[in-house]
Amino acid sequence: MNDSAEDHAAPAPGSLRPGGRTARTRAAVRDAVLTGLSEHGYPALTVEYVAEHSGVHKTTLYRRWGSVEGLLADALDLAGEDAWAPPDTGSLSGDLRALAHEVVEAFGDPATGAAPTAFVGAAFQSPRAAEALHAFYAERFRRCEDVVIRAVARGEAPPGTDAGTVVRAVSAPLFLRLFVTREPIDGAIADQAAQAVLAAVEAGSFVPA
User: Which Gene3D superfamilies does the entry link to (predicted)?
Assistant: First the structure.
């Protein structure tokens, strides 16, 4: 975990080509942040922990990321740079169900859901984390709009259907159960959420007046 001349001269995260040392450093730091969130939660996450588990010296972490908030925000930024694409099952019904099931897969299992749940919890304690979480989900929902755009083109949804509102409506009841009422979610709940949104779409409820 020794600082090198390259570390001292390194630009901000993400400013080098994807295959360069900066990208590898960001990935190692991101993995350490996720591990720390899963094991200890946001309040107990420290720069020292990330340094120990990433192999990046803590002085480098402070210089590049500034704080735990900076580490958390960049981990979310890096996650948002992936190649994830929404499902394309050939029908609006199938796509909405698949989107709902992705929420269950990401958050439903306590082991796999620990890190993303901690990210959400951190947003209530850190303005910078909240901003990063907002940007992450704004991008995710923007990509998901293709599901509705394709449905309109196939005649499964009325022209003018608000794509952004539709894709948010699918996950909204699931997030309510996860983070507000603290109820479990499963495949049946996911199917119910998707079916309710599908019925509303077909009724024209998502076409602005």
Answer: Homeodomain-like, Tetracycline Repressor, domain 2
Residue 87 belongs to a domain:
no
This model's pTM is above 0.70: yes
Final residue before a domain boundary, out of 79, 102, 127: 79
Structural domain span for residue 163? 92-202
Per-residue pLDDT band for 20 (boundaries 50, 70, 90) equals: low
Q: What percentage of the chain has pLDDT greater than the value 90?
A: 56
Residues 6+ apart with CB under 8 A from 140: 80, 84
* Residue 11 shares a structural domain with residue 106: no
Quote the CA–CA distance of 168 and 131 in Å, as a whole number.
18
CATH number, domain of 184, equals: 1.10.357.10
The label of the residue with tokens 């699918």 reads: 170
CB burial of 192-202 (b: ≥16 within 10 Å; e: otherwise) equals ebbeebbeebb
- Indicate the Cα dihedral angle 89, 147, 134, 52, nearest 10°: 30
pLDDT tens profile 139-190 = 999 999 999 999 999 999 999 999 999 999 999 999 999 999 999 999 999 9
